[in-house]
Specification:
CATH superfamily of chain A: MetI-like
Bound molecules: adenosine-5'-diphosphate, magnesium ion
Strand order of the largest sheet of chain B: 6-7-8-3-9-10
Distance between the termini of chain B: 32 Å
Number of helices of chain B: 14
Number of domains of chain A: 1
Largest interface: A-B, 22 and 30 residues
CATH superfamily of the largest domain in chain B: P-loop containing nucleotide triphosphate hydrolases
CATH topology of chain A: MetI-like fold
Structural class of chain A: mainly alpha
Number of helices of chain A: 9
Oligomer: heterodimer
Largest sheet of chain B: 6 strands, mixed
Helix content of chain A: over 70%
Order of helices and strands of chain B: EEEHEEHEHHHHHEHEHEEHHHEHEEH
Shape of chain B: globular
Strand content of chain A: under 5%
CATH architecture of chain A: Orthogonal Bundle
Chain lengths: 212, 322
């Protein structure tokens, strides 16, 4: 315990900069993941026969072990943060895409028919009915993607992209358990913290009339 | 007036839902479309606001063909109530009712005034209900909101697809009565889809009986009972109901006074409360007036028109409407 605290104090700067790097990687990956998966999820609800194949492809990416994916991307993209980001984005896509699609498809057909019958345009139906009602699902997808990404970002160190994985890796190489812990603990706290914050947002995103 | 001219609808899978239908739905009347499940009632109704488009034939509203009209604009000018209520669960009652006025970009004060007026019309206190959400209301209250939401943009035409079928029998009866009374004030052209003959007989000015994508008979409730066009219509109305009318036709008006209205400003012909329903029908048929003034001991105690008499004729022994 003493050791661990000493390590924290002595390597403070290194840990904080690794933490910031880690947050940056995760945050950017999730943000780009949302920017791709949210519109794509909406589009495939309009062209449902393409939905299964597209979700299927992202699901296949998801099954590739993360280390293998990083290893696979290095020969193509070289070393550095872009490579790590691309790998992380690939993992972030599926939960957001799947939940956006399921959330919108799950909106009661009679509600949408009522909107159409009263003269709402497609865009109005999307914005005023489908998205608000699907929002809790979409937020849950973003939450899953975030927690996943924070965990996997630990591997960014193998492509030289830094993050808390650096600290853990160094600790492992020098048989310094305190250092391993000083890297692993913030990852866990980060994941739990994001999870809680997003859970709170998810709750707030649930339309008022649907809370019981 | 809504007019169907040789309208056929074939779905991509080959189902022929409507077969060469020609019809007129008169203005200011409540027309019920009735028939067994799958006979094309909903499809017929959705043609009017272009939720479905005819494969062949045309539809006219007041002699203007709708196929040239912009569908979004058209729908905003036609009220629409669907079977499964279809209120937006994430919007307050007020926002639900104000939806079409909002689409039509009415000013805020006009919207709010309209919402209050409409909620009051169906007995929902605006102060209590405006800010509630649909799921906080009972089924009957929700469907009342569904009905007034369709009236919000002050449309001339209102389409209702089995609006009360999901309700319990008591709320259903209540809403049927309310709709009938409402129609006396608002005088819209209402197209009302149902599969319930009691409902159709009770609320409709005229009834269109459909089977298998075709029209079997068009007539007033009275005409359908008196002269069913064929075996199908007879069975659909129910032999029971036709016979019931015979036996109950023997009953006296005095037993049904509570079904009749107590005041009526127009002309009416006098009849004794001791007369039978049968006689009342006969007298009304031969009279120039639409109403009978029912008198007991020299005093007029109630007024009845053909619909009221029919209601009385259909009442079960217990005194509760079938
Ligand atoms: N979108 C559709 N595609 C194919 N067939 C349909 C479609 N909608 C309705 N139908 C068919 O058309 C017929 C009439 O349907 P509908 O108008 O809904 O009947 P009703 O409202 O009288 O129960 C039914 O046989 C139904 O299965
Ligand atoms: Mg139907």
């Amino acid at each position: 315990m003493r050791n661990f605290l000493d390590t924290l104090v002595n390597r403070q700067d290194m840990i904080i900069s690794a933490l910031l790097e880690h947050m940056y990687l995760s945050f950017v990956a999730v943000a780009i993941g949302i920017a791709i998966a949210l519109p794509l999820g909406i589009v495939i609800t309009r062209y449902r026969r393409y939905a299964e194949p597209i979700i299927g492809v992202t699901a296949i990416f998801q099954t590739i072990p993360s280390l293998a994916l990083f290893g696979f991307l290095v020969p193509i993209l070289g070393i550095g943060s872009p490579t790590a980001l691309i790998a992380l984005i690939i993992y972030a896509l599926l939960p957001i895409l799947r939940n956006t699609y399921a959330g919108i498809v799950g909106v009661d057909g009679s509600t949408i028919e009522a909107g159409r019958g009263m003269g709402m345009t497609r865009t109005q139906i999307l914005r005023q009915i489908e998205l608000p009602l699907a929002l809790p699902f979409i937020m849950a997808g973003i939450r899953t993607a975030t927690v996943l990404t924070v965990g996997i970002a630990t591997l960014a160190t193998f492509v030289g992209a830094g993050g808390l994985g650096d600290i853990i890796y160094r600790g492992l190489q020098s048989y310094n358990n305190s250092l391993v812990l000083a890297g692993a603990l913030p990852v866990a706290l980060l994941a739990i913290g994001f999870d809680q914050i997003l859970k709170w947002i998810e709750k707030r995103a649930t339309p008022k009339g649907l809370k019981t | 007036m809504i007019r169907f001219e040789n309208v056929t609808k074939r779905f991509p899978d080959g189902t022929e839902a409507l077969k060469d239908i020609s019809l007129v739905l008169p203005t200011h009347e409540l027309t019920a479309i009735i028939g067994p499940s799958g006979c094309g009632k909903t499809t017929l109704m959705k043609m009017i606001n272009k939720l479905e488009k005819p494969t062949a034939g045309s539809i006219y509203i007041d002699d203007n063909p709708i196929n040239g009209m912009d569908e979004v604009q058209l729908r905003r000018s036609i009220g629409y109530v669907i079977q499964r209520i279809g209120l937006f669960p994430h919007m307050t009652i007020s926002d639900n009712v104000a939806l079409v006025p909002k689409l039509l970009e009415w000013p805020k004060s006009k919207k709010e005034e309209r919402v209050r007026e409409l909620l009051e019309l169906v007995g929902l206190d605006p102060e209590i209900y405006m800010d509630r959400y649909p799921l906080e209301l009972s089924g009957g209250q929700q469907q009342r909101v569904g009905v007034v939401r369709a009236l919000a943009g002050d449309p001339n035409i209102v389409l209702m697809d089995e609006p009360f079928s999901a309700l319990d029998p008591i709320s259903r009866e209540q809403l049927q009565d309310e709709l009938r009374n409402l129609q006396q004030t608002i005088n819209k052209t209402i197209v009302f889809v149902t599969h319930d003959m009691d409902e159709a007989l009770k609320i409709a000015d005229s009834i269109i009986v459909m089977r298998d994508g075709q029209v079997e008979q068009v007539g007033t409730p009275q005409q359908l009972i008196d002269e069913p066009a064929n075996e199908f219509v007879r069975n659909f109305i129910g032999v029971e109901r036709i016979n019931q009318k015979r036996t109950f036709g023997e009953k006296r008006l005095i037993e049904f006074l509570d079904l009749f209205v107590t005041d009526w400003a127009g002309d009416a012909e006098k009849i004794s409360a001791d007369a039978t329903i049968e006689n009342a029908f006969l007298q009304l048929d031969n009279s120039d007036q639409n109403y009978l003034a029912i008198s007991k001991g020299g005093q007029v105690v109630a007024y009845a028109n053909a619909r009221d008499l029919l209601k009385a004729a259909l009442v079960k022994e217990t005194g509760v409407l079938a």
